[in-house]
Design goal:
This protein is mainly α. It has three helices and no strands. It has a domain of about 45 residues.
Length: about 90
Amino acid sequence: MTETTTSTAPRPVRRLERDPNGSLGGVASGLAAYLNLDVAVMRVLFIVATLTVGFGPIFYLIAWLVVPVASAPLHPPVGAPMPGPVSGSSFAA
């Protein structure tokens, strides 16, 4: 009887880190990257937690103080400039 072994690549280690480009400390952006969610969804969840239970700001502040900042941005910046000439920016001589 032969054993078959499958070689799988090791999964990258997920770390909870704050996004250095995130607004208000990058907590929601870092949690969204960690949980594989959209940043807008995470921000809405914080708002809902604040309005219903009231612990949103407290959790956010604690996470801001405890979670380390990532060394690289976790999400691409919104509205990143496109390469090439900007439309409508030509000057007539």
